[in-house]
Design brief:
about 200 residues, 6 helices, mainly alpha, flat
């Protein structure tokens, strides 16, 4: 990326992330709270089984982390001087956390069957809404893929399913990287065109 465009592109990316974040963060917090209530309402309570307890801990963790992120995000946009570079680094950390959280939920799901749905929609959501730089996005998605498949063999309840999970999770990581690259590239192109028109 040319240096003369970098600051404006970072600003536009940060503004796009913030617009998406305002909606998604509320949904995440409300959904996690709802899941915690549903778990608590189950016979035996939220800690009746180890698997149920892990779900509760993960839901509570995402609820708290997202709540803190919402406060930090609000405070950032109230500042007069904004460091968009730092903001995007913070967003990168949250994106990595979301992917790791999705892996943990998926691993817990595997104790009761063969389900990669959470891994799938968390990765695709980060790719679609994060506006991440392609290389950083690829590192996050492939790291999630490696982490998931290192842990899966030790907890899978369905035999001879390792190859299927590797292929499916690798495809999801690859598609997520491609989506992230496409959206980032479009954002860069549009921003450059806008700057050219202004001049």
């Amino acid at each position: 990326m040319e240096e003369k465009y970098r600051a404006e592109i970072e600003k536009k990316r940060a503004e796009s992330v913030n617009r998406a974040w305002k909606i998604i963060s509320v949904f995440v917090v409300v959904f996690q709270l709802l899941m915690l209530i549903l778990m608590a309402a189950k016979p035996g309570g939220p800690f009746k089984t180890q698997r149920r307890a892990i779900y509760c801990i993960l839901y509570l963790t995402l609820f708290l982390v997202t709540g803190i992120a919402m406060i930090l995000n609000r405070n950032f946009w109230r500042r007069e001087k904004k460091n968009y570079h730092l903001y995007l680094h913070a967003e990168l950390v949250y994106a990595a956390f979301i992917c790791f959280w999705g892996c943990c939920i998926t691993l817990n799901d595997q104790l009761g069957g063969n389900d990669l749905s959470v891994f799938t929609y968390m990765m695709l959501s980060v790719a679609a809404l994060g506006f991440l730089e392609p290389v950083k996005a690829g590192v996050i998605f492939m790291a999630a893929f490696v982490f998931l498949n290192i842990c899966l063999p030790g907890i899978q309840t369905i035999e001879n399913n390792i190859f299927s999970n590797i292929i499916n999770s690798f495809s999801i990581a690859g598609i997520s990287t491609a989506i992230s690259y496409s959206l980032y590239r479009n954002k860069v192109i549009v921003t450059k065109q806008e700057l050219t028109i202004r001049k």
